[in-house]
Amino acid sequence: MLPYAIMVMTDDSDRAFMTELFVNYHRLMYKSILQIVHDQWVTEDLLQATLVKLIDKVAELRKKDRDRLVNYIITACKNQARNYLRDKKRHPEYPLEDYQEINDAENDQDSIEARLVAADELNRFADIWPRLDERSQHLLEGYYTLGKSTAELAQELGIKKDSVKMALHRARANAYALMQQSN
Questions:
Q1: pTM value?
Q2: Burial class (CB within 10 angstroms; exposed 0-12, middle 13-18, buried 19+) of 6
Q3: Contact at 8 Å (CB) between 168 and 158?
Q4: Is the Cβ–Cβ distance between 77 and 29 less than 8 Å?
Q5: CB-based contact 160:154 (threshold 8 Å)
Q6: CA–CA separation, 36 vs 85, rounded Å?
Q7: Largest CA distance in the chain
Q8: pLDDT tens sequence across 155-174
Q9: Of the candidates 42, 144, 150, 174, which lies 20 to 30 Å from 61 by C-alpha distance?
Q10: Residue 68: phi, psi to the nearest 5?
Q11: How many whole angstroms separate alpha carbon 62 and alpha carbon 77?
Q12: What is the C-alpha separation between 32 and 72, in angstroms, rounded?
C-alpha cells in the first residue's frame, strides 16, 4: 500500500517519482532501518518519517544517478534509525507502574520540606491559639481536630448549618491574620 505522505503530494510528477522510488526501494529501506532498531513497529514509523524527509528533497533526488540515489536512501534510513535510538537513550521510556513506585531522593526532599513547613505553621498556630476568641477555638477544634461535621457544630451552637460555614470562614481568617501579625 502506498504511504499517505506520497498520496497527498500535489505535484503529479513528484508523486509519480516518489511512488516509483517507494515501490522500487521499499524493502531496502525497511531492511536498513530494521537492522538498526530491531522492532517492526518502530521500523514502519521510521520508514514513514524517512519518506517525508525524502519528499522534501525530491528535486535533489531526481538529479542523482541510480547508485547515488540508493546510497542516499540507505543513508537517510540509517540516520533516521540512529537518531531514533539516540533520542530514545536520551529520554528512556518507563512503564507508568514503575514510575509510580519510584521513591527517589528528590521526592523525599520535597516531602521533608513540606513536613517542615507544616510543622512551622502548626507552631505558629499554637502560638496564636490563646488570642483567638472562645467560639473560634470551639469551631476550629471541633471541625479540624475532632472531625465534627458542620451539622453537628450547628446543633451544638444552636445556629444554622450555613451560619457554621460562615463562622468557620471567619475563624480561619482571624487565625490567619493573627499568624501574619506574629511574623
A1: 0.49
A2: buried
A3: no
A4: yes
A5: yes
A6: 8
A7: 95
A8: 888 888 889 899 999 998 99
A9: 42
A10: -65, -35
A11: 18
A12: 12
> Per residue in 47-101, pLDDT tens?
999 999 999 999 999 999 999 999 999 999 999 999 999 888 866 565 665 555 5
Residue 145 — pLDDT band, cuts 50, 70, 90?
confident
Rg (CA), the chain: 34
DSSP for 30-71 reads: HHHHHHHH--HHHHHHHHHHHHHHHHHTHHHHHTS-HHHHHH
- What nine digits make up the cell of 177? 491574620
Non-local (6+) Cβ contacts of 182 within 8 A are 124, 127, 128
End-to-end CA distance of the chain: 72
For the chain, the average pLDDT equals 86
Q: Which amino acid is at 99?
A: Y
Q: Which residues contact 78 (CB under 8 A, 6 or more apart)?
A: 32, 33, 36
